Structure formats: C-alpha cells, structure tokens
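Example 9 (inverse folding). The structure is encoded as follows.
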C-alpha cells in the first residue's frame, strides 16, 4: 500500500509515534456503556490500529479520498463503516442512530467547529477523546477565572466534564506542526437540559465574551435587562469570572427582561 501524503489544505499532520496513539486509544472508556466509536480523520490508521483493541465497534469518517482508498485496502472488513465525508456536514445518525463516542487527531483549522457540532449532538455524543492544538485544548479545559477560559469552555463545560490528559510535541508528526498539541477527554455529565432557554444561553455566553475586557454590564448592553437587575453586582464582573451556573442565572434574568417588555 502506498503511503498517503499529508495535505496542507486539509490541515493534515499524521501522528508517527505509536506509544502516543496507544495512550489516546486507551483513554476512550466507553462512558455510559456506549459501544460505538467514531474516529474523525483517521488518515493512515495509526490511531485506528489501537482503537481496534478496545471493545467498542469502530466507525471511521474521512474527507480525504486518498486516505479513504488506503483505509479500504488496510481494513477491508470495515466496509460501510468507513465513511467518506466531512463530519461537520455529515448526519452521523445515518450510521450511528444511538449514542456514540468520538476519537481522533483533529485538524487544527476545524477543531473548534467540531466541538460546536458535538454540542449540537450532545444528547448522543457521550465521550470525546481527541488531540488538537494545545492552546485550544487548554482553553476548553480551563476553569473560570483563568485567562484561557472562553466561549467554548463555558458551553462544553455545561454538558461535559473535561480533563486535560497530556501534551504532545511537534516532533511526533509528519509534517511537524509549529505548535504543541494537547489531548483532552470530555465525558457527558448528568445535565439533560439547562434551567433556562438554551439558545439564549449560547447568545449570552458569546455576548459576554465578545468584549473580554469589559464588564458584563457593558458587554450585554444589547440584551434586555430589567431595571431592577441592572444594579446586580454580577454585572460588575467580566465573563471569564463566571461559571456555567452564573451564565444560566444571567440568561434567566434576560428571559425575565424579555417577558416584561
């Protein structure tokens, strides 16, 4: 089998260190007893080989046609479980109608978009174990009060428990990226629904962080706040100082403001 050449326009950096691939695969625990895993962007199957040692049934989704041909040749027994497509646009329920886990070495240029898709699928995606740019991995796992804490931190932490597992140097990739990578694990928590309008919650979180240096009183000016609530001390804080419960509380107050107008 001819090796696949990494393609810059797809943000491909192929992992070459087998011990790291094994550590990533071992971090997939099958949270909530889920027995299906979707690997995003398997490339030449370095991580795939180790995921196959886990008890879960494995599915692969890959956008690169050259990699697809390589994977079909390497894993002929997979058949339809090798999906040619873009996870961001693909309706995973076609092959995974029930709950599933995600694993993968995410392309740096679309990792944040993958997580927004995970949020859309949060009722079905019970676990994510992935490698991505360290800066983004740290941000997602950061607690409130940390300078790295941001929109994705709040949104993902509302529905997932997040652990930063380990750092990976550029030298173990072909071609080497210019920055370190980080491996994180997200496991679905017990929250089924937030105690507020979830679409509004997303908007409030994004609004709060839109001007990080401003207090929430200024950052959320465009939202309808009741006169009574405008004096609340929470509005003197900045978005990075608020946890998920605080943002839920803010969203509830804005809902009241909408109701009174």
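The amino acid assigned to each position is listed next.
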């Amino acid at each position: 089998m001819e090796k696949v050449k990494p393609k810059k326009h797809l943000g491909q950096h192929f992992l070459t260190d087998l011990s790291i691939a094994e550590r990533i695969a071992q971090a997939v625990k099958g949270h909530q007893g889920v027995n299906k895993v979707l690997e995003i962007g398997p490339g030449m199957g370095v991580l795939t080989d180790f995921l196959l040692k886990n008890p879960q049934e494995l599915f692969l989704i890959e956008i690169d046609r050259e990699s697809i041909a390589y994977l079909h040749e390497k894993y002929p027994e997979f058949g339809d479980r090798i999906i040619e497509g873009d996870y961001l646009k693909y309706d995973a329920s076609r092959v995974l109608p029930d709950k599933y886990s995600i694993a993968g070495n995410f392309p740096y240029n679309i990792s944040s978009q993958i997580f927004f898709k995970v949020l859309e699928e949060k009722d079905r995606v019970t676990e994510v174990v992935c490698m991505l740019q360290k800066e983004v991995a740290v941000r997602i796992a950061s607690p409130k009060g940390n300078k790295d804490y941001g929109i994705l931190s709040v949104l993902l932490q509302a529905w997932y428990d997040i652990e930063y597992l380990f750092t990976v140097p550029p030298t173990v990739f072909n071609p080497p990226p210019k920055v370190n990578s980080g491996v994180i694990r997200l496991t679905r928590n017990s929250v089924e629904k937030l105690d507020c309008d979830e679409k509004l919650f997303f908007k409030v979180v994004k609004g709060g962080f839109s001007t990080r240096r401003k207090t929430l009183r200024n950052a959320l000016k465009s939202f309808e706040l009741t006169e009574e609530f405008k004096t609340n001390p929470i509005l003197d804080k900045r978005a990075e100082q608020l946890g998920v419960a605080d943002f839920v509380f803010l969203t509830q107050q804005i809902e009241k403001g909408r109701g009174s107008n």
